[in-house]
């Protein structure tokens, strides 16, 4: 009797559950909402870290000035002579652990005759991470003396407090980073210069007077030198910080007609201003750094800039 062969059918497994299109859209929407909720927190944390780094940069600049003052018995000037001679940013280099760079600099010669490439040397302390990383100027040129020779250089997000808004950038400036008392140039060589100020010259007190602040540079004008009539970006105020040709490269004003700018998009040639939303940081002559509102009253701003007006500063500003 022949055997029967039975065909055994494989058992069918249970069908795998799958997302419907609606369920998939719901999941995507939930993820998008979570990302939207987390992103501001991440951005806030990043900005807090950037602001802390910026504060430390200003602190290092202030400490460098104090060290410079101890050695040289005077404050570094805005620039050591008229035209394009070295600025405070060159003079304090040894006190920012940049002595090898400083040793290459010829402080008896102007910016445009330094060794090729030297002016492009970057110092990380000069940059606020909320705004940008190391950047080169676009059009540093001294047409009056050197046939329009362009020498690009490193820029900076910080400026010395040079003057109130009613005073020019000259020997009579009212701030603390100002022109020297004496500067003699012969045959385009600086032979002697003497500082105008010491810390003892600051009659209003070191804790009541700005030393440095964040410099305003309008978005779209990065690297552009002040008063460049050959460009629609005239008035950038962001030429090389080593170049004393234009004072707006390295110093700023403050007062009733030179308020802290409210936004990085706001025009302004010589104002203080920052990339931190709503705030601008300043280093005082005593070395501390303070975060101030961009809506700070112009009269109070002027008092903090002027070194010897004798006016009181409220404790709660």
Quickly count the helices: 5
- Terminal Cα separation, in Å? 110 Å
Overall pLDDT level: 89
Q: Which consecutive residue ranges, at least 5 long each, have pLDDT under 50?
A: none
What string gives the helices and strands in order?
HHHHEEEEEEEH
Secondary structure elements and pairings:
Elements: H1 21-72, H2 88-91, H3 99-103, H4 143-146, E1 158-164, E2 182-186, E3 189-194, E4 210-214, E5 251-254, E6 279-284, E7 289-293, H5 298-305
Parallel strand pairs: 1-5
Antiparallel strand pairs: 1-4, 2-3, 4-6, 6-7
Structural description of this entry:
The protein has 317 residues and is of the alpha+beta class. It has one domain (30-305). The protein is built from five helices and seven strands; from the N terminus they run ααααβββββββα. The strands form two sheets. It has a five-stranded mixed sheet. A two-stranded antiparallel ribbon has the order 2-3. β6 (279-284) and β7 (289-293) form a beta hairpin.
In short:
This protein has 317 residues and is an alpha+beta fold.
List its salient traits.
317 residues, alpha+beta, 5-stranded mixed sheet, two-stranded antiparallel ribbon, 5 helices
């Amino acid at each position: 009797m022949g055997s029967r062969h039975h065909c055994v059918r494989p058992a069918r497994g249970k069908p795998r559950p799958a997302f419907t299109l609606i369920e998939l859209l719901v999941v995507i929407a939930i993820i998008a909402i979570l990302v939207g909720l987390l992103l501001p927190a991440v951005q806030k944390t990043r900005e807090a870290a950037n602001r802390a780094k910026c504060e430390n940069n200003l602190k290092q600049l202030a400490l460098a000035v104090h060290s410079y003052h101890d050695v040289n018995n005077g404050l570094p000037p805005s620039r050591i002579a008229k035209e394009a001679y070295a600025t405070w940013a060159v003079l304090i280099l040894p006190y920012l652990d940049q002595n090898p760079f400083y040793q290459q600099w010829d402080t008896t010669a102007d910016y445009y005759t330094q060794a090729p490439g030297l002016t492009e040397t970057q110092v990380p302390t000069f940059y606020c991470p909320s705004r940008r990383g190391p950047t080169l100027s676009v059009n540093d040129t001294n047409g009056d003396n050197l046939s329009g020779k362009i020498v690009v250089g490193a820029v900076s997000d910080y400026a010395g407090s040079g003057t109130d808004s009613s005073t020019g950038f000259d020997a009579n400036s009212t701030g603390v980073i100002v022109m020297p008392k004496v500067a003699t140039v012969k045959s385009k060589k600086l032979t002697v210069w003497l500082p105008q100020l010491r810390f003892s010259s600051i009659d209003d007190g070191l804790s009541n007077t700005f030393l440095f602040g964040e410099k305003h540079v309008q978005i779209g004008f990065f690297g552009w030198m002040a008063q460049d009539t050959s460009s629609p970006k005239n008035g950038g105020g962001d030429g090389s910080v080593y170049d004393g040709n234009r004072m707006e490269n390295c110093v700023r004003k403050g007062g009733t007609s030179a308020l802290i700018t409210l936004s990085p998009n706001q025009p302004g040639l010589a104002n203080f201003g920052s990339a931190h939303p709503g705030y601008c940081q300043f280093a005082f002559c005593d070395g501390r750094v303070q975060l101030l509102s961009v809506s700070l009253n112009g009269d109070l701003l002027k008092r903090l800039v002027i070194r010897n007006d004798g006016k009181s500063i409220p404790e709660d500003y």
